[in-house]
Amino acid sequence: MLALVAYYFCLPKPLFDKPYSTVIESAEGYLLGAQIARDGQWRFPEQDSVPYKFKKSLLYFEDEYFYQHWGLNPVAIVKAVIQNAKAGKVVRGGSTLTQQTMRLARNGKKRNYFEKIIEAIQSTRLEFKYSKERILTLYASQAPFGGNVVGLDMASWRYFGVSPHQLSWAESATLAVLPNAPKLIYPGKNQAILLNKRNQLLLKLYNEKVIDIQTYELALEEPLPQKPYDLPQVAPHLLTEVSKKTPQQRIATTINYEIQKRANQIAQNYYNQYSQSEIYNLSILVVDVKTRNIITYIGNSPTTIAHQKDVDIIQAPRSTGSILKPFLYAAVIDEAELLPETLIPDVPTMISGYSPKNYNLSYEGAVPANRALSRSLNIPSVLMLQEYGVYRFYEQLQKLKLHHITKHPNHYGLSLILGGAESNLWDLCQAYAGLSSTLNYFVSSKGKYRNNEMTSLNWNQETIPDLGSNALQKPGFGAGAIWQTFEAMREVNRPEGDEAWKFYDSSLQIAWKTGTSYGNRDGWAIGVNKDYVVGIWVGNATGEGRPSLTGVSSAAPILFDVFNLLPRTNWFETPYNDLEEADICITSGYLAQENCPTKKAWIVARAKKTKTCPYHFLVHLDSSERYRVNSSCEPIENIHAKSWFQIPPIQAFYYKNYHVNYVDLPPFRADCIAQNASQLDFIYPKHQMTIYLTKDFNSNLQPFIAKAASSTGNKTLFWYLDNNYLGTTTNFHEFEIKTTTGTHRLSITDTNGNEKMIEIYVNSKS
Q1: Given CB 3.0 to 4.6 Å as the disulfide criterion, which of 103, 319, 744, 745 pairs with 517?
Q2: CB–CB of 691/761 below 8 Å?
Q3: Cβ–Cβ < 8 Å for 750, 730
Q4: CA 235 to chain centroid
Q5: pLDDT at 713 (0 to 100)
């Protein structure tokens, strides 16, 4: 009984305890790359089968009676003993493939008769435990093939550059004889011996009618391997990521092999181009919106070690630039605090010492919110964030699972929207995929959401992401706000310096956004449609900026080239269940009031609580419509009432440079008693601003130029500094001011007695 128990438990556990390589394959089963095992051996994880050609070659070379014995072949053993005795040395082995498998499992054991007896006993036990096919796969996975190559999989790639199932009969025969004498494979050595062994095996296969005469003759003509092949490196940075999460496994990834290879070529082409400008790194990520599967993963350009080629930029946090602006736009639209075409100020701004600037250093006075997003204007975005609140926006970013935005909202302040925070390409693409999926599902389910749309991206083919269960309440942004955000991002001819966009393929139906971080260190471009998200980053992994590096000029061209690899798709369907039709003021974009020119537009269902247009009102004019009048100077029957569009003076100062139809409010006729006060404002400087004055060669402080605006542009303005009269300006209100360092009060007054005063701090540059 004890002997039976000992026999039952005689196999080592585990049978093989050597470390394996990490191996990744594409969704179609193509090898993408592999990482060497910890012990320095190339040993792929066990496959579930052995290719037919190799199996036949192996059996006829090593063990013809493999399917007839129970682990031992007594006839072969007796023949081997007799031949070895006659020769006085070992000239023939009697081991079966099962015994050889056990010998591999018992690696390190001494080769003596006692150990051979144990090996024989264990071989019979192995036959009881595993099927013949499993024993063959164990052997094929663990057999030595020369050097640090272990197993058929690696040997096939190393010596012939193909997968085992693609091996020819000659190649299969070559590999079948190697475990018996692995040193024969060294390139340039032992070629005659190896060729003879291979050809003898091919002859045996022909004689046993395994192959026909034509196959045999063609196989004899095939050359032996002359040099080792490099393993495919189609997705090296994904391989590194997989090895961290699931080491020593063979993972079938979600990567589309053809798209990955073609995207690699795109990356190579742009690297060759950008490296001329000392821009050495880029990354590309493509996501399937419906499944959240990664279609393409390029963590870095094919650069050099000196330029950080091994850094996976997809996972690295980088300054976001303007890439977060669509999230703010969606949040404000979703909260019904703004309509897509509502005018937002675009004027020189200072907020608590923070003075944002537009990329091209110009100002338009006021721009529609959707145009501010599509053109990536900084000042409207900062003012929008100030109104919405940094804390509230921070909470929205947490819902989007941007994991690297972890500091207190006060740390970021208003710079959060202009690149003051860091995120990575993985999280950003995940967020955009979640928004696209939310919109798609809402439309397809006729008004329902899912509570886990922001689920993580996936590269494992066996993993099915959990998108949650149905919910009537939106978990994040509503479908209407997302749709309106994508509509704004759909516009092609946008950011400043957009001359090159006319050459892009406008038929691509995508919503997209670019971003450039401070100092031109990071160039972003992310695009999304119903089916895919494409994310691009361009820059230097070391953080060095380059003047030529921008999202619009560097990242966007790659975005369009990658989208051209993907199947075309229709534009997002309109989520009518989350929208309602309303009358909108054509000029201001607000909800219309009685004095506005109107049009019909779809707005989010909650947006009717937004305020009506504050910029249109009735004015009373004389018959010439050149002057405002009232009953003090004109009979009521002669007064013409007319709807007038007027924005604050500082906005109007810039706005009319871009809108030739904008007309300032007419002045009151001289004989009228004015009822409506003129509006005054300073363009520069702003209230409580610190002004730094330069000195000339004699150390005298130089003046600064102050600018002001009036709602009636032909008014004369009177300028005062600390209640001291300085002078007047008419029509164009710019005044050179000489002063000393310290705190001063600057004021302007018009002819109607309207006044505007600010406090400024003057300092000198050392």
Answers
A1: 319
A2: yes
A3: no
A4: 16
A5: 55
